[in-house]
Structure formats: C-alpha cells, structure tokens
Amino acid sequence: MLSIRNLVKVYPGPVAALQGINLDLQNGMFGLLGPNGAGKTTFMRVVAGLLEPTSGEVLLDGTDVIKTPQFLRSRLGYLPQDFGLYPHLTGEKMLAHLLRLKGVESPKGTMALARELLDKVNLSFASQRKVKTYSGGMRQRLGLAQAIAGDPRLIIVDEPTAGLDPEERVRFYYLLAELAEKRIVLLSTHIVEDVAVLCSRFAMINRGRIVAQTSPSEVRKHLEGNIYEASVSTAELESIRKSQMVTQAILVEGTNRVRIYQKGGTPPIGFIGVPPTLQDAYFVTLRSELPGITQQ
Ligand SMILES: Nc1ncnc2c1ncn2[C@@H]1O[C@H](COP(=O)(O)OP(=O)(O)OP(=O)(O)O)[C@@H](O)[C@H]1O
To answer: Which family, according to UniProt (predicted)?
Structure first.
C-alpha cells in the first residue's frame, strides 16, 4: 500500500503547490486528475523521491520513503512528463543505457534484458531504429520499458498520454492496465478519458488540494438526474453560459451541443436529461465540489 500523509510543498515565492495531501493507494491503477498547475507534477516528483516536501510522509508498504530513499529506489519505476532521449541511439541501445544508469542487472546481460523489455512494450520491431524516428507513442512506450525494469512495486507515470494520437493512446492504455494488475500504478493526467478508461479509483486535485477521492461510477451516480443536454445556436450558448453551469460545449457536425448541470427545478426549454459522464463530474467538482463524495 502507498500512503500519503499531510503532504505539503511550498516553493519559494511562496507558492503552496501541495496543501496537505492525504491518499491511500492499493494495488491497481490510481488516477490523479487535475487541471494545469493543480500540483500533479509536484506531487509525482515528491512521491518519486525527486523533490523534498516541506512536510508530510510517503509510506510504501509501511516504510517512510522520504527518510529512506534507498528503499524506494529499487521498488520504483518512474516515467516523467519530459522523458529525455538520445535521438541518435537505437531504441535497444538507449534502453540498455537507461538500465545501466538505473543499476538494473540481469543474469542474461543488459542487452538481453533491454530486448525482453522492448518486447513487453511491443517495440521489438523498432529495436534497431534510431530513437529520433520514433513516434510520440513509441517514445512513451520506451519510457515505460525503463520504468518497468526490475519489476517495481510502484510505477509513477506523469501525464503519459498527452500528445499521443488516438490509436497510440489506446495501445498505451492496454499496456498500463496490464502493469497495474500486480502493482500500484499512479497515473497523473488532465485528460478525463484516461481516468474513465483506466482507473477504478481516482482523486481530483485542484490548487494543491484533493477535492474528491472516488471512483468514476460513484462520481457519475452523484450527478444522476442533474445533467441536461441540448443543441443550441452560438448566440444561445453565450446566454446559457451566463445563467447555467455548462459542463461541456462541443461542436457536433457544426452544431453546438451543450451539457449543463442543474440541481432541482425545470431545465431550460429544449434541454433533455442525459446520463452523466465523468467529464460532467470533473467540471462540476472543480467548480463546486460535490457533496457526498470523500473530500479533504
Ligand atoms: N520550481 C517551482 N518554483 C515555483 N513554483 C513552482 C515550481 N514548480 C511548479 N510551481 C508552481 O506550483 C504549482 C503546481 O505546479 P505543477 O507543475 O506541480 O502542476 P501540474 O498540475 O503538474 O501542472 P501541469 O499539468 O501544467 O504540469 C503551479 O502554480 C506552478 O506554477
């Protein structure tokens, strides 16, 4: 289990990036969802032992990893937001280099281990290609290969799907889901779909605070009967934005399809009740913090 206790990080400024985070994570995929600047990267870096918190504890299976970083090092796989690459190396050589840096050893030798890991992330076909020719998704999978080396207890992935095309994103989802079967995977993202697809539990973070800790189905259930949808003109959309809480406004075949949250009362003319999505819940939670969901 990964337990986070009263984690605070104040940068010089001062900027209070984390304002007392408490979380308990079991095996499986846990999502940390929040807008840009919410504190996700700060949180991931503290938990990964790369940034010292101002105060608080990070316990992995009962051991305080801030006090004993060597305990964490051999049990952690980390895929940072900006994963540095040597563009002129082949995938295989790049990975072997990262494994040596990480100190991961194998009786079969580092190159053999690199090949095995490339196979696990479905990159064998490109093992002899230079990394500079890799697509965004292939780079992320290479990053994941180094993160899973040494069979870590905890894997931390920071916004891994940003910039991936839909096909690459789905491929990445399958890999992550498989990894989470036996370990703790902590995924930070601002993409609601990442959480909807992958996470049975997740937390929403905003301005350095956890504003909800829940599951996608639980949070959707809280909004049942309160989400309405209509197709409207651009002028109508402007006035709806002034009077309603709009959870989503998208263009569908050239028409504005707008969803609103309304608790009680009659919805505006033309709006019909629809099943809530996680996107609706995310918007409502960030704006008003839903009652009834675990909050801190
Ligand atoms: N080194 C730093 N010094 C001062 N302030 C910082 C530093 N790093 C981050 N911050 C601030 O701390 C807050 C949280 O930033 P953080 O990068 O953790 O958020 P995030 O949720 O990961 O955002 P993004 O998705 O944009 O990466 C922001 O207000 C940011 O400007």
So the answer is: Belongs to the ABC transporter superfamily.
